[in-house]
Amino acid sequence: MFGQIDPPHRLLMGPGPVNVHPRVLRAMSADMLGQFDPEMTRYMNETMALYRRVFMTENRWTLLVDGTARAGIEAALVSLVEPGARLLVVQAGRFGLLLSEIGQRIGAEIRTL
Q1: C-alpha to C-alpha distance for 39 and 30, rounded to whole angstroms
Q2: Rounded to 5 degrees, what are φ and ψ at 5?
Q3: By percentage, how much of the chain surpasses pLDDT 90?
Q4: Residue 70's Cα: distance from chain center in Å?
Q5: Sign of the torsion formed by the C-alpha atoms of 76, 27, 46 and 33
Q6: Which of 4, 19, 47, 60 has the largest count of CB atoms under 10 Å?
């Protein structure tokens, strides 16, 4: 009735999606673990330790959040900008407008170029 999904190999050169190493594909096809499984906790702790090395920090709560560019921008602004802070935004496209919108919701004083 429906054919199997078998996309041709492509070299993806855009901002995403990107090509994935076969080792990663194998790991992604492994059995699932629940979030409270002791092995999952061990994997997460190892992953957080690797992130600390990559970002050259000792902060034990260093982690990455999977999401869109918007999610990353919003997480950064909410973490760094306090209500009432002045925020200078270059509006040269969609992401500049997005920065302004998020900054306004935070309660920042927005100035645009």
Answers
A1: 13
A2: -75, 120
A3: 66
A4: 9
A5: positive
A6: 47
